[in-house]
Automatic annotation (TrEMBL):
UniProt protein name: 3-methyl-2-oxobutanoate hydroxymethyltransferase
Active site: 186 (proton acceptor)
Chief site of localization: cytoplasm
Native source species: Saccharibacillus endophyticus
HAMAP family the record matches: PanB (MF_00156)
Top-level taxon in the UniProt lineage: Bacteria
The protein's Enzyme Commission number: 2.1.2.11
Pathway where it operates: Cofactor biosynthesis; (R)-pantothenate biosynthesis; (R)-pantoate from 3-methyl-2-oxobutanoate: step 1/2
Amino acid sequence: MAAKKPLNVVKIRKMKEQNERLTMITAYDYPSAKLAEEAGVDIILVGDSLGNVVLGYDSTIPVTLDDMVYHSRATARGAGNTFIVADMPFMTYHGSTDETLRGVRRLMQEGHAHAVKMEGGLEIAAAVKSIVQSGVPVLGHIGLTPQSVNTIGGYRVQGKDAADAKRLMDEAKALEAAGAFAVVLELVAEETAAAISRELSIPTIGIGAGRECDGQVLVFHDVVKYASPYMEKRFVKTFADVGSQIRGGIEDYVNEVKNGAFPAENHVFKADEGVSESLDSLYGGGRSEEATQQNAPSASDKEKVGTQG
């Protein structure tokens, strides 16, 4: 497959104008990023969802800036020709502008991201504007915002009634006005997401937000069912089941080692002719008789386990 050229924010906006759907997937390390790039995705998101699917947390809240820098850097090494967005983790953009920009700088300089993603709407618009003015592209994220799950009443669909739909529209417009190049809509009622997508001049990227968004994003581990146990989600389609294949492969490995089938003849390396005899002559062909006798079970030991002498 010929090497592709990475997108930029101008091309991303152009794709909306040309009605070309955007594809985005999360990745958190070198091999998953490399596979995603080879598959042709437009954007890779180094999401703080790594807290759930890679680090074993029950939410994204424990994920630190150091975690994000580490995983973004590894992802960038695997996908040098793909536009990479890194999440700003919990509480790294709600303080002073200087503090926010220090976090952004780390994700860009140390994590080698091309853009950052931030959850929230009106309350973070000023921070988004400051970051964009500093020269860093920002991807917005509204609807279900996992970092705020404790204040929005859990994992529930957003924008189902008129008042909530208007709130989301206002937040999306605020992010657009602040300079965001696109907005993720997560777990949003389809009609609301469609209206927002029509109203904005920047692309919307949906996850559980229906069919009318300008693009879609899914978590890598959901796409390929790489989890145990795997939790089915209504808004997710799995396109492969590598989890079962991985588990089955490891089970086969364990069984073959236990029964002596692995390593087989074709897995070993041979020494020069005569090496085995030379070692035997030097070291007595294995453990000495004295060592063998010392490790042999005594008569009393045999009696304890019912062994016949």
